[in-house]
Write a structure and sequence with these properties.
It contains four helices and 13 strands. With 189 residues, it is of the alpha+beta class.
């Protein structure tokens, strides 16, 4: 069961004091978010999406797609997106840290039963407020991707997911029904 700890305020530094117990710990606006390990379906969707994003980033020289990221905005906001595209290129110097890396171009959260409120409410607003250019919140149970951009209304995509950063010559296009069917099988089962 997910939990948002009520003792407040938590800080980014407080996360470093928590145990490495298989849970994911994040802090948003001073509130501790605790999530258990994700389901197999969550991870399958994430891995397939990561492969596609990684290939697109490599082909268009956009940066690296990372499955984890220690994204610290300030003392009260530190999160770990499921996937993020950071504009860094090999060879990556050992001196580069999450704290000194550029902000992500794209952040992806894949919903779990345990992270639904965390991702759709608190983290969605944090990414928007912090100016992350593009956030995808993937709801594989509903087979929809919520596309979030600062200053725009959310767009629930069911047909095609399109990402066309200025530095890329061609857009990345994902047929969502085909994507979800390839990972999860047909919907009418």
């Amino acid at each position: 069961m997910p939990m948002a700890a009520q003792t407040m305020p938590w800080t980014s530094d407080d996360l470093d004091l928590l145990p490495d117990d298989g849970n994911k710990y994040e802090v948003v606006d001073g509130q501790l978010l605790v999530s258990p390990a994700p389901s197999l379906a969550h991870e399958a969707v994430l891995l397939e999406l990561a492969e596609r994003v990684r290939a697109y980033c490599r082909a268009n020289r956009l940066g690296q797609a990372f499955p984890r990221n220690d994204l610290r905005f300030d003392d009260a906001n530190r999160v770990d997106p499921d996937l993020s595209v950071v504009p860094v290129f090999p060879p990556i110097p050992e001196s580069l840290t999450w704290a000194t890396a550029p902000r992500p171009l794209l952040v992806v959260e894949v919903l779990s039963r345990s992270t639904r409120t965390h991702d759709l409410r608190w983290k969605r607003e944090l990414y928007r407020r912090e100016g992350i250019p593009l956030t995808w919140i993937v709801d594989f149970r509903e087979r929809v991707v919520h596309v979030i951009r600062p200053g725009s209304a959310d767009v629930p995509e069911r047909g095609r997911l399109v990402w066309h950063p200025a530095a890329a010559s061609e857009p990345m296009v994902i047929d969502l029904s085909g994507f979800f069917e390839a990972v999860l099988g047909r919907e009418d089962r």
